[in-house]
Amino acid sequence: MPHEPTPDPLTAPDASAPRALLTVTGADRPGVTAHLFAALASDGDGRPAVEVLDVEQVVVHGHLALGVVVGALGTGQPAEAERELLDHLRRVGREVEAAVGVRVAVESASGPDAPITGGRAHHVIVLGRPVPPEAVAGAAQAIAGAGGNIDAIRRLSDVPVTSFELTVSGAEATALRTALASVAASTGADIAVEQVGIARRSKRLIVLDVDSTLVRGEVIDELAARAGRAAEVARITAAAMNGELDFAESLRARVAVLAGLPEAVLDEVREHLVLTPGARTLIRTLQRLGFRCGIVSGGFTQITDPLAESLGLDFAAANTLEVRGGRLTGGLVGEIVDRPGKARALIRFAEQYGIPLDQTVAVGDGANDLDMLSTAGLGIAFNAKPFVREQAHTALNQPYLDAVLQVLGFTRDEVLDAVP
């Protein structure tokens, strides 16, 4: 069988060799990076003087910040080798400064004061409209308090929400999420934590709740209003979504008050549905990226099936209202899609498309979504009740559903490229 060759230990970086950090700052212009690395490429007699160990570059509003960690390739005593390395890099720095007008700082990156990283890396996404400075400050303090270090920061989006992604190393996931949850609660920003790795970008199926997630409001409340029982049903709905009542029991009680309504009322309610802002952008973007997209609802197929068809979704599951003689009977037909039923539907659709559960995403707001949220590889509580937010993998309290894209790591530019 084919096998990977054993790495040559002679080619691995020498951890004991002197290292140094060059930090380049100034106005960004073409050729700065090229000039720096050309100067690093030789020590003057044609032999390489250093090896490149790490590079990070960002440009913020035309201002360049470039960091390069290099290691010495020469031999000799460590102290002498480090002195020679730093002297060489200072000469390189002066050459680059004179050529392209930037500032180059040189410092040692070896020894006991060198940065130490460890543990699994995580992405911390801070979202808001706007993002208050205290949210960033609080997140940074919480990360440090959890033993983490911020390795990089990038902006994901500026509209409809502002979002930044911090890459964090050295912190344990549970401690990090706990510390950041209190920051989110105190500042009003949303802060999500995702593990760095290919699993984040390997998601391939998303399931959306409908009422108060994909669409604004609750369909059952709209139907009850037409039966003159709005206040009564709204109280039952709120209790069910807060987890105070068994969902199946509460659903039967609410549906019972609809007895006698003409079937045409379903068409009226469906025509007046209002999608949550960003819903179309989220679905279209994920579809262009190859996602299977669908809905799993505790609502009614007479509403959700036409909605799924209009949005071009791959699948839908919901309850079915019983209709006889053109009127609602106040009963249901078939299996009830309750809290465990939603999780079963997610599993069924994932199996249908051959997608592992850890590559699925679920989004919802109520107690009946909790099993679905915990079953998915990533469960997102969207404008959810407090106890739902606490139990989901992450939470969003923005009014825009396409903020889910930033939690998945997509930038605004990638979204614009994906949507025709």
Task: Give your account of this protein's structure.
- This protein is α/β, with parallel strands linked by helices and 420 residues long.
- It folds into 3 domains: 16-108, ACT domain (Alpha-Beta Plaits), CATH 3.30.70; 122-197, 2-Layer Sandwich (Alpha-Beta Plaits), CATH 3.30.70.260; 205-418, HAD superfamily/HAD-like (Rossmann fold, 3-Layer(aba) Sandwich).
- It has helices at 32-40, 78-100, 133-145, 173-187, 219-226, 230-241, 247-256, 264-271, 279-288, 301-311, 339-352, 370-375, 386-391, 404-407, 412-418; strands at residues 19-27, 50-60, 63-72, 103-108, 122-128, 149-157, 162-169, 190-195, 205-208, 292-300, 315-324, 327-333, 360-364, 378-382, 394-396.
- Strands 12-11-10-9-13-14-15 form a 7-stranded mixed β-sheet. Strands 2-3-1-4 form a 4-stranded antiparallel β-sheet, with helices on one face.
- Helix 5 (219-226) packs antiparallel against helix 6 (230-241), helix 5 packs across helix 8 (264-271) and helix 8 packs across helix 10 (301-311).
- The chain is elongated, with a radius of gyration of 28 Å.
- The chain starts with 18 loop residues before the first strand and ends with a helix.
